[in-house]
Design brief:
The chain is α+β, with helices and mostly antiparallel strands. The chain is 51% helix and 22% strand.
């Protein structure tokens, strides 16, 4: 608001001789004064909200910039720790983890990933009379969890433990162990 507007409002209030605490609206002029006070308060609310939004945006930008810097440090030191852990693993193939005063570095074994060619698997199961391992709805689908339990892994293939036969349509991937850094809180 301009200084001129402030002066006008102050003059009008003096002319109307208003007192907030014990004031009672008795005429149109007093009602108009109350409306003007509401308008002023609403304008101040808008100014406060605009200022708050502006400050919040600045704080969010600052936070994002600081977190980006810190993430670079985290990534850098995790890379150094991963390199150190790989060297330890080269020296000792059984190396899994290392507990230190400020945390722990470790390799976490990942589960094998099964890749299915559904049609080939169903065909194999039919041929070997293993109808318990697929379902028929509108199409025949292998029951993948049951298949994992019924057969054993041999390198990248599934094998029938009873016959030693390779299961058609399934390959198994063994992902590398995942490196993890755990910092004590």
């Amino acid at each position: 608001m301009s200084e001129l507007q402030d002066d006008l409002i102050q003059y009008l209030e003096e002319q109307e001789q208003t007192e907030k605490e014990s004031y009672k609206i008795r005429n149109d002029s007093a009602a108009n004064w109350a409306l003007r006070k509401i308008k002023q308060a609403q304008q101040k609310q808008e100014e406060v909200n605009a200022l708050a939004v502006d400050e919040i945006e600045k704080i969010n930008r600052w936070s994002e910039e600081e977190n980006a810097k810190n993430q670079k440090d985290i990534d850098y030191f995790q890379g150094l720790l991963a390199q150190y852990a790989m060297e330890k693993r080269q020296q000792d193939s059984e190396f899994k983890s290392l507990k230190l005063p400020n945390g722990r570095i470790r390799f976490q074994k990942k589960q094998p990933k099964y890749n299915y060619d559904d049609d080939a698997v169903v065909e194999y199961l039919k041929k070997n009379e293993r109808t318990d391992l697929f379902q028929t709805t509108t199409t025949e689908k292998p029951l993948k969890n049951d298949i994992k339990k019924a057969f054993t892994i041999n390198k990248d293939k599934l094998i029938d433990p009873d016959t030693g036969e390779v299961i058609d349509g399934v390959t198994v991937e063994h992902p590398d162990d995942e490196f993890k850094v755990e910092v004590d809180k």
